[in-house]
Amino acid sequence: MKKEPLHSCPELIDYINDIGFLPLLHMGIPGWSAEEAVDEDCRYTRLPDGGWEWPLWKWKSSILQESGCAYGKFLGSKAAFISREWWPDFYNYRRSVYPYPEERSIEEAILDTLKTEGSLTTRELRAACGFTGPKMRSRFDTYLTRLEMGGYIVTKDFIYPHDRHGREYGWGWSLLTTPENLFGRETCPPGRTPSESRARILARLRKILPDVPEKIYDSLLK
């Protein structure tokens, strides 16, 4: 993994393309995250006035637009980047683990809505699917996470609200879509069986995380 800290968005894009699989934030494996790969100046900083600065967070949109990688809750239900090179195998294997949602299920309704609209922010998709009542957000997010883990939904971009001066603020909303819509249907299947894709991903994880116990690889592939 990266030994010298990264200082810019282009450097992080190159690193994602090189490593293939990279969580956004620390998820228990030392050094294996974008958060740990960047210099301290690029990490979250709380300001004296109560505001915050977090260059890494702001880079997410540029990374998606410029690298063509996939982003979503892919690894242990946590957000991660997957390079375009490795996305087809991830897509191929995970869809065998998470079968297409059952007919007339809530998850099918979520996917059908997203396919019809092309792309929607998380809050727009939640409203379109009728999850507007009290405590509905966490329930809806559970369905979204499962669909992302299965490779059915990816983040296309991030949308930020603007204040009256036209300045962006807040954490932003994920603009969701399907991988077929984002990458094109022909770029998703790799021409291998799911078990062959799993073997390739496992070999890659062993290479980039050589000191990790075998059970960790298995947990990441679930």
Fold and architecture overview:
The protein has 222 residues and is of the alpha+beta class. It has ten helices and eight strands. The strands form three sheets. It has a three-stranded antiparallel sheet. The chain has a three-stranded antiparallel sheet with strand order 6-8-7. A two-stranded antiparallel ribbon has the order 2-3. Helix 1 packs across helix 3 (55-67) and helix 4 (87-97) packs across helix 9. The protein is globular. The two termini are 23 Å apart. The mean pLDDT is 93.
Low-pLDDT segments = none
Class based on secondary structure composition and strand pairing = alpha+beta
Number of strands: 8
Q: Give the C-alpha Rg.
A: 18 Å
Helix content: 40-55%
Main beta sheet: 3 strands, antiparallel
Number of helices: 10
Strand order of the largest sheet: 1-5-4
**What is the H/E string?**
HEHEEHEEHHEHHEEHHH
| Assembly context of the chains | single chain
Q: Calculate the terminal CA-CA distance, rounded to whole Å.
A: 23 Å
Features of the shown structure:
three-stranded antiparallel beta sheet; 8 strands; alpha+beta; globular; 222 residues
What layout of secondary structure does this protein have?
Blueprint: H1 9-19, E1 21-23, H2 34-37, E2 45-46, E3 52-53, H3 55-67, E4 70-75, E5 78-82, H4 87-97, H5 106-117, E6 120-121, H6 122-128, H7 136-149, E7 154-159, E8 173-177, H8 179-183, H9 194-208, H10 214-221
Antiparallel strand pairs: 1-5, 2-3, 4-5, 6-8, 7-8
